[in-house]
Amino acid sequence: MATETSTNGGNSIIDPLAPEQTYTVDASKKDTSHKPTIEDVIDEEDLEHPPPSMHLEPGKTNNDSASGAETVLSEKAAGKQKAVDEPAAEAPKPAPKLDVTSEEAFPALGAPKGKAAASVSSAWGKKPTAAGANGINGGVNGKTPTSGISSRSSTPASGMRTPASMVPPQMGAGRGPQGISLPGRHSDYIQFAPSELIPPNQLKSSRQEVIRDINRKSKAKIEMKPGLTGNTIMFSGTGPQESVREALREVASKLGSKQTVKVPIPASVRPHIIGRGGATIQGINKRTGARIQVPKQDEGPDTMEDDSATIDVIVEGDAIACGLARRDIESIVNEKTSTVNLRLKEIPPEYYPFIVGPSNAGINALEDGRDVRVQVPNYYQWADQAPTPPPGQGQPATFTPQARHPISISGDRQHAQEVQAELERQVEQLRRQLTMDQMDVERGRHQFIVGNRGPSLQDFLEETGCSVILPPPGDDSEVLTIVGPADKIEAGMNKVMDLATSMSMASVDIARQHAQTAPDPQMHARNLTRYLQQRQALEQLERMHNTSIVCPECRSGGPTAWEVFAQDGKNTMRARNDIMQLINAHPPSRTRNLNVDPFFHEHLQQQYAQQLRREFGVHALFPQPEEVDDFPHIVLVYEAPGTPSDYELPRRQGQPSAAEVKEFEKALAQAEQQIMELIQSQQDVALRQVDANPKFHDKVKRYVDREQATLSPDQFPVQLLFNPSPPSGPQQQRRPSGVQVRGPSPAVDDLTAKILAFLEQEEKDELERGYTMSFEFPSKFANFLIGKRGENIKKLRDEFDVDIQVADGKVDLKGPQAKCEACKKDILKNLQKWQDETTHVLKIKPQYHRDLIGARGSQVNRLQDRYSVRINFPRSVQINDDATDAGTEVGSVRNAGRPMQGPDEVVIKGPKKGADEAREELLNLLQYTIDNSNIATVSVSPEQIPKLIGQGGREMDNLRVTTGCQIDVPSARDPTGPDGRAEIRLKGSKKQVEEAKKLLQERVKVFDETVTKTIEVDKKHHKSLIGSGGSNIRDIVIRAGGPSDSRSLARTVRFPPPNSDESTIRVEGSAAVVDKIVAELTSYAEQRATQVTDSIAVPPEKHRLLIGRGGETRRALESQFNVSLDIPKQGTQGEAAGQVKVTGQPSDVEKAKAHIESLVKGQEGVTVNVPKPLHHHIADGGQFFRRLRNDHRVTVDHAGAQLPPRPTGGAEARGRVNGGALPLITDDPGKAADAHSWEVVETHSGLPDDSTETIPWVLRGPTEGVEKAQKQLEKAIEEAKKPSVTGYLILPDPRSYRFVVGPGGSGVNGVRRKTSTQVKVPRGGPGAGNGGGEAIEVVGGKDDVEKAKEMILELVKEGEANNGGRRG
């Protein structure tokens, strides 16, 4: 190796902490192809050299200077160089320092790196844009730093003295007279302070003996002499360059004391120091010989994101090792901190919307042209701190920063600083401009101001120039804060009021609905609210009705009313109606509160909640930890037996029946009994306090988890509550510090004793933390020990509480001796298992890999866990990430062991027995997969796929269940074939595939043969085309051969919505059916186009003759003459009230008009004046009218006369009779009729002498029928003028009333005809609810009433005799 030429012709110095001074590079290495001779080399005296006092050029290292300002000489040139006189000096002039940053002197892993990045001038968050700004390596104004400290001038000092260079300024690089270094005579030195060397009394041999021993083994010669300055000791070496360096390294290792250096780094760089799988830190350890410890990652959210957060990396080793390691660490830091993450915590969040600006204009302006990203929190709800009150008149507003919600700036350092400065300028401007005001708005309307249900904050800002701040959901405040310029505050407040009042609101007080049936209506309302929220019923209602439902916060003593908001008031009422039905379906009888100690809640919820649901159909509602104070009980809610996922919340109008309530209470009682039995089997719950240092809390938790891992499901685990260390303050100091143990008394006592023993042992172990142990471990199994993402080694560290390091075929353990021994034993045991590993390579076609791996790796994970093996599928298999992690990746071992794994090779590795069993099961699974891998495809139109899937996947799920076939339906994102069709993939056994394919092809055929045509029909004809109740269009479709069911019919012919202006009718179906329907619709439309409309005068009182009962007469006329009738509605005034419009073909219209005229003319009425006091008596509740219509086809109207009110007399007598004692029920048919109750009450004393007012009864119908009806009416008037009585007959068994009514009412009608009385039979029979003894009412003359009673009793006797005495 060619000897390097020193810049001053003398010796060189090793200084590990002076990276700013480097070696010159041998010119022969720069151009190995050039072999110069002595004659080729220019004389040294002809070269231009810098003066001795010349400084380095800013921005260059000594290496740059040597390579640029000086010509590097080869060996031959060095021998030819002319001597230069050296000035006299008081001390020997040393060579430049040995630079530990030199890649040639101390090669790193991999290829040599380029020139180090420019140094920093302050914290890691800021680096200079050019090296010359602050000089080289932290120098100022172009001056080279004179100390040997790190180039990171901002790095805090470590507090440790390392070997320092004592090179005088005039001996620096590039200064002083030039000399040469002869081949094989390279000189270097290092020097130490006495404190940096091992004391002589601690050395096994003296320093001179150590040096002699090194000289005997090395080609270099080492000498110890006093240092250049101060009380230092120098070790110089002469000889070949590599030998000198190795010898000096050995001197530092054997004589230098162990040093500990703290290197502060940004927390965000921590992962880069460690590297993937620890590769980087292990490489530094191996290269430098130092031991490096990186602290664990802090759980705080800011640690990895904010460059102001730092951690200390601990470097242990001799002076040179520490220096080299520090250099490498700082090199990584310099490389990884070219960008920064800044957090601005001093800006009040009220300014954030104005910084962002409308449509993100402010952020875009900040980021435009800069390599930076600005993130501003969306602040429209205060979280930790409410805005301050509005300022007084003429006073500036006060806005308080909130450090928990900072603005984040990430990106290029210089650009980030520019953005920061710009933001600070904007904040000052906003502080002068902005003010604030507040207003109260109803809490439920806040959501419509800004947010998901209202406009965005940016839109609000753009429209009003203001921002608005809402209280958070958990706060009861109704105060809104409006922030903006003083001249725009009023506009902002007006906008808030407009938004708040734009929504209609309805309130539903849950407690009021069950106020009469619930012991505590407020508690029931809160329980029901929590239950429905958990079942997501509110979200369903909101989606269904496009509303927003605001529930009050469930807390003791709080409100219980729900508020329903919507822009459309109809939606509000619909949602409220649905809510009422939900509430009615969940009465207090459907729920039950169960007081259970909160200790049991978590275990009951995890272990038994699903069991209660399956066995009893009871849902258990457990309070959240923060709700325990308000709701300490468990709420049991009866749902229904069956699968919870299929359960739909019930809705009903009225209260549940007695049978339903009994079912509720039975299931709730069973669930309560099971829970209480589980709890009662446990002893009393006890609480113990264990004092424990907070540093042991995590260990205690892991220890308790291990202790309770084997508990049976019916055992309640003990709970731990960790108390943090008490902060300062007299009140806080009284809080306990340690661990609270709570659970069943015996378990708590036992576990407390174990925890105390564990803590005692931990205290002892702390004293032995310095113990270390090392043992050999084959490197090829290192990844097995570390595990995927370090899982195995982390588990060992937690289990044995020791520090474990794996490197260079060794395992280093640090911790208590006993735990290190146990950990070593476990590691060696695992090593023996890994060494027993067997590998099977199975040839399996790639087409089966996906099925063998299973969804998300389920199949392969199951095999790996069962047999403790690793199963590797080739990476070419296209599966999801989770499956890749689980089934195809074992880390570097797999790649190293089988780097050329074929696409059809599956590798099984593990213990011989497990690998053999896994191989056998995998082959069996393969055979099953092959047998069930019959594949077929069905080509479908992409438009048909939603119909094949069905609503919620119902149709496709039914098809899968029916056939047992696996059916893969392409999604909308999947590409289609060249013909534009999609492929449905079928997989399964041969029979399953054939059956599924047949069913799908049938559906596809129907769809493919389906055509769609449209026809334009004037909107005014649509109603007549559809017909009453859809009858007309149904007839058209059925005549054309289309479907008859309403659902299919609706798909066949689709009319546009009634409120739209469209006139296009869409017809869908087979070609033949569609053509027929279109032809008939076209013909109908053409006919309607030639229709005429004419009017005919019909008096309003005769309109009913054209309408008929239920509209049957009108429909018959329209069908008979193929016309449509437009009859004026009741209440129409003027001439239009008597005009009936007839629409149709001219000839049909004329025929219809003639028929209507004859119909009306033949229906001239006869008027009979009935005395007003007798009107209701004769009408008999409408029975008289029905008799006239049924017997004579005569109808009655009163020519618009106002009818008298119904008389109330007789109600008292009826109540008295109905409220009396019931007759005794007897099983003797002969005596049943005799066991009755009968009472006669005088109800009508005849027509008063002074009565002159009458009510017109207009009789209309056939002439013959009118005459008979008139006679019957006149007779009824005469009879009514006579005094009458009312008889009340109560039978012992309400089921006997059916014998009085008779088949089709023949019995009661016969009594009425024969006795001329009015008979009313109550609706009776089993389950009709008349078991209270309602009476049969008989009204008429006294004798007629008695006769009617006898006939009724006779009917009962005959009916029971014919029924054989059977009841019901």
From TrEMBL:
<feature type="compositionally biased region" description="Polar residues">
    <location>
        <begin position="143"/>
        <end position="157"/>
    </location>
</feature>
<feature type="domain" description="K Homology">
    <location>
        <begin position="257"/>
        <end position="334"/>
    </location>
</feature>
<feature type="domain" description="K Homology">
    <location>
        <begin position="1162"/>
        <end position="1278"/>
    </location>
</feature>
<feature type="region of interest" description="Disordered">
    <location>
        <begin position="887"/>
        <end position="906"/>
    </location>
</feature>
<feature type="domain" description="K Homology">
    <location>
        <begin position="1283"/>
        <end position="1357"/>
    </location>
</feature>
<dbReference type="GO" id="GO:0005737">
    <property type="term" value="C:cytoplasm"/>
</dbReference>
<feature type="region of interest" description="Disordered">
    <location>
        <begin position="715"/>
        <end position="746"/>
    </location>
</feature>
<keyword id="KW-0677">Repeat</keyword>
<feature type="region of interest" description="Disordered">
    <location>
        <begin position="125"/>
        <end position="177"/>
    </location>
</feature>
<feature type="domain" description="K Homology">
    <location>
        <begin position="932"/>
        <end position="1005"/>
    </location>
</feature>
<feature type="domain" description="K Homology">
    <location>
        <begin position="1009"/>
        <end position="1086"/>
    </location>
</feature>
<dbReference type="InterPro" id="IPR004088">
    <property type="entry name" value="KH_dom_type_1"/>
</dbReference>
<feature type="domain" description="K Homology">
    <location>
        <begin position="338"/>
        <end position="428"/>
    </location>
</feature>
<feature type="domain" description="K Homology">
    <location>
        <begin position="836"/>
        <end position="927"/>
    </location>
</feature>
<protein>
    <recommendedName>
        <fullName>K Homology domain-containing protein</fullName>
    </recommendedName>
</protein>
<feature type="compositionally biased region" description="Polar residues">
    <location>
        <begin position="1"/>
        <end position="11"/>
    </location>
</feature>
<feature type="region of interest" description="Disordered">
    <location>
        <begin position="1"/>
        <end position="101"/>
    </location>
</feature>
<feature type="coiled-coil region">
    <location>
        <begin position="413"/>
        <end position="440"/>
    </location>
</feature>
<dbReference type="GO" id="GO:0003729">
    <property type="term" value="F:mRNA binding"/>
</dbReference>
<keyword id="KW-0175">Coiled coil</keyword>
<feature type="domain" description="K Homology">
    <location>
        <begin position="1090"/>
        <end position="1161"/>
    </location>
</feature>
<dbReference type="InterPro" id="IPR004087">
    <property type="entry name" value="KH_dom"/>
</dbReference>
<dbReference type="Pfam" id="PF22952">
    <property type="entry name" value="KH_11"/>
</dbReference>
<feature type="domain" description="K Homology">
    <location>
        <begin position="769"/>
        <end position="832"/>
    </location>
</feature>
<feature type="compositionally biased region" description="Gly residues">
    <location>
        <begin position="1324"/>
        <end position="1334"/>
    </location>
</feature>
<feature type="domain" description="K Homology">
    <location>
        <begin position="433"/>
        <end position="501"/>
    </location>
</feature>
<feature type="compositionally biased region" description="Basic and acidic residues">
    <location>
        <begin position="27"/>
        <end position="38"/>
    </location>
</feature>
<keyword id="KW-0694">RNA-binding</keyword>
<dbReference type="InterPro" id="IPR054548">
    <property type="entry name" value="SCP160-like_KH"/>
</dbReference>
<dbReference type="Pfam" id="PF00013">
    <property type="entry name" value="KH_1"/>
</dbReference>
<dbReference type="InterPro" id="IPR036612">
    <property type="entry name" value="KH_dom_type_1_sf"/>
</dbReference>
<feature type="region of interest" description="Disordered">
    <location>
        <begin position="1310"/>
        <end position="1341"/>
    </location>
</feature>
